[in-house]
Amino acid sequence: MRNREIVMLTPHGDPLGRIGEPDIGGQCVYIRELAKHLSLKGLSVKVFTRDRGEGKPEIESFADTAVVIRVPCGPEGFIPKEEILPHLNDFASGVSGYIDGSEVLHSHYWDGGHVASLLHNDQPWFHSTHSLGKVKQMSLPDSSRYQYVDRLRIEEEVYQGCDQVFALTEIEKEQIVTLYDVASSRIRVIPPGVDISVFQPHSSPAQCRSELGLPDRATVLTLGRLDERKGFDLYVRAASEIAKNKTIPEVSFVLSAGDGSPQEEEEHRKLTHLIDTLSLEAAFIWLPVLPEETIPSYYGAADVFVLPSRYEPFGIVMLEAMASGVPVVATSNGGPAKVIDNGIDGLLGNPENPHEFAELIASLIHSPDMRRAFGHKARRKVERDYSWAAIADRFCNAYEVGTQGGHHAG
Asked: Which residues contact 8 (CB under 8 A, 6 or more apart)?
């Protein structure tokens, strides 16, 4: 494998783009960190993305042996990922000028998968899904479902044609098997990683609170997308239970969610009404989505992190909190139960039962010793199993096995 170059294909999302720009999000961070840490393992990585005509260099290095190569295709400027398909043949033609067929292909998302299918010529081909069209489509109103016709067709072709599919969670693996009829043996689960140099334990939550302008009192934190499935209303109800408990000192309940977009108006209105109804205004601090660079400081300010989702496939914010040495109370519904050892490095409960969930949070507020023990063990677990270095090792192993084991005929 040391002599094989990894070619990553991510047409719509530039891994070196600025978070918050159109279609520059978690997938871009994921690809950047994976490529960087594969480079640290001694592999050479070329990441191909679309040149948006913004004056960025054609080839940009971001690690010793990792570069981004921007390929012109379609009109200048941003093209939403939903509208990129007509330009992917040109993108594939542009990529073909840089490769000779001896490389290992690693495609990302359906658009990268489609490009890989056009370029594939018997070399090893791995694919990361990042999300599943059939799962997304189920949550859409009927009038919008037609938008997914091309994506679903391409996903089926890619999942059947590549050598191995990478799923982020066991739950996603089961969905690929069931919805796309892919053999379980051709799917490997590798979770996302955490940058443990960015997310680190902080020695003084009080100092972090002071620097952030938060009240200096016990602080509970949650953050994420403003979406009913994230269970922020359940967090508010648990906060109300704790606020009523006179044996607990004053607590700040911090929520970072919402970017003011029209899609979020209804959820914002419902949550605001609930906070008012439960008379939580004095204890509740609602912040918009935090800039990426300030998030570690908010973990540092927290005594407890809460993941109250009604259902959570994985929970990357949970891993960030664990890496920061913050004890976690997480939903038992979904992926967190595969990560947290309940009662050893975190607590699991049903957020649909606000009283029970509140008791778990309160038990950590009451016990500094338990917080320290959980936080220490959680950090050790992330270092061992979920750091980007550990995740890169798992990809290296997958490439090695897949390259030696022959190719799947799609």
From this structure: 31, 35, 45, 46, 47, 48, 106, 107, 108, 112
| Per-residue pLDDT band at 60 (split at 50, 70, 90) | very high
Q: Are 89 and 76 in contact (CB under 8 A)?
A: no
Tell me the pLDDT tens digit for each residue of 187-202. Answer: 999 999 999 999 999 9
In degrees and rounded to multiples of 5, residue 7 shows phi and psi of -110, 115
Identify whether 409 is part of a domain: no
DSSP E strands: which ranges in 203-278?
A: 218-223, 251-256
pLDDT band at 404 (very low <50, low <70, confident <90, very high): confident
CATH of the domain at 167: 3.40.50.2000
With the C-alpha atoms ordered 63, 57, 194, 116, is the resulting torsion angle positive or negative? Answer: negative
Residues 182 and 245 in one domain: no
Could you give the percent of the chain with pLDDT greater than 70?
95
Considering only CA atoms, give the Rg of the chain: 22
In angstroms, what CA-CA distances link 301 with 202, 205, 355?
A: 8, 4, 25
- The number of distinct structural domains making up the chain is 2
Residue 71 is assigned to a structural domain of this protein: yes
> Rounded to the nearest 10 degrees, how much is the dihedral formed by the CA atoms of 179, 175, 130, 220?
150
Tally Cβ neighbours within 10 Å of residue 311. Answer: 12
Edge to edge, the sheet with strand 284-287 lists 284-287, 251-256, 218-223, 304-307, 328-331, 347-349
Residue 186 and residue 201: Cα distance in Å, rounded?
38
pLDDT (0 to 100) of residue 131: 87
135/255 same-domain check: no
Whether residue 122 sits in one domain with residue 250: no
Residue 118 has pLDDT above 60, yes or no: yes
Q: What is the pLDDT of residue 409?
A: 45
Within-domain flag for 175: yes
Residue 59 amino acid letter: I
Asked if the structure places residue 61 within a domain, the reply is: yes
What range does the domain containing 227 cover?
Answer: 205-386
User: Both 153 and 220 in a single domain?
Assistant: no
